[in-house]
Amino acid sequence: MKNTQIPVIVIDDTPVKRRGVCEFVEETSFLELGGQCGDAQGAVTLVETLCQEHQENTTLAGWLVLSDLRLGSSNGVELGRTLLDIAPGLRVVIYTQDPSWTLAAEVFRHEYTRRGTPRNRRSGKSSGLHGYALFNNMEPAYLEYIASSVVFRKETYIDPEVLNYLLKRLRGQRLTPRQEECASLIARGLSNDDIALRMGFLNTKGGPNIGPVENLVSELYTFFSIEGAPSDPGRRVLLAHAYEAYAGLRQDPPLL
Fold first, then answer.
1. Burial of 108 from C-beta contacts in 10 A (0-12 / 13-18 / 19+)
2. Which domains are present in the chain?
3. CA pair distance 12, 23, nearest whole angstrom
4. How far is 142 from 152, CA to CA, in rounded Å?
5. Which tens digits make up the pLDDT trace of 83-94?
6. For the sheet containing 157-158, what is the strand order?
7. What is the distance between the alpha carbons of residues 230 and 224, in angstroms, rounded to a whole number?
8. What is the pTM of this model?
9. What does the record list as GO biological process (predicted)?
10. Measured between alpha carbons, how far is residue 9 from residues 145, 150, 229, 230, 234 in Å?
């Protein structure tokens, strides 16, 4: 484990819950509390201030945000995207009480807008967030694992209970061998062009023919109940998580 201390910002409008999460952060071996607040506007102000105070790291790279989903009249997912617009180096994890596959799609979606308008002032697109945790599982070991995933390894995190909820919905349905091969390559981070070459889908010139791959990917989205715009890369992130759970490839440590 790296020795670098990860600064953490905790956002929760319920004082008791916020205090509990902050205490867990302070009990971990490599996390440190960098700030806390109880509402969306306070979070925006805090992050803007931190960017000004850290001139050597104005994007707040290496900082972790833990935010409750419900913040009064505000939405933690939308707030997370606003914070990434201000400080794109942040890693943002949303937590809530109940597992929801629909919410998972919102957390990782790159084009999410609450009122149909882009959130990111620079690119015109909104960023996907980095993790979906469950409040009931909060404890130091859980937070350490999440931080290691999203900050140190630059991965995305989704609580195993959310994925188990999806697997129960599948009720024993199975992928075809071709679908499973395609899904396994997606989970390894390969592009459609690379997958076409690996699976032997070639055009007359010997280059990748991605048409069959796109069909397989569409089938996978349907199988795992992943909706959204075809251009949204967040769907591919969710598909990778879903396939790893389906295939038993995830190695989430048991909670202590």
1. buried
2. 6-166 (3.40.50.2300), 173-246 (1.10.10)
3. 13
4. 15
5. 999 999 999 999
6. 31-37, 6-11, 64-68, 91-96, 131-134, 157-158
7. 15
8. 0.85
9. regulation of DNA-templated transcription
10. 17, 14, 31, 33, 24
Phi, psi values for residue 92, rounded to 5°:
-115, 125
Residue 55 to residues 49, 89, 120, 152, Cα–Cα distance (Å) = 11, 13, 22, 22
Tokens of 24: 């867990």
Are 118 and 126 in contact by the 8 Å Cβ rule? The answer is: yes
How far, in Å, CA of 252 to CA of 214, rounded? Answer: 30
Per the CB < 8 A criterion, the answer to whether 28 and 55 are in contact is no
Beta carbons of 156 and 237 less than 8 angstroms apart: yes
Regarding beta strands 91-96 and 64-68, do their DSSP bridges make them parallel or antiparallel, or are they unpaired? parallel
Distance CA 191, CA 176 (A): 20
pLDDT band at 253 (very low <50, low <70, confident <90, very high): low
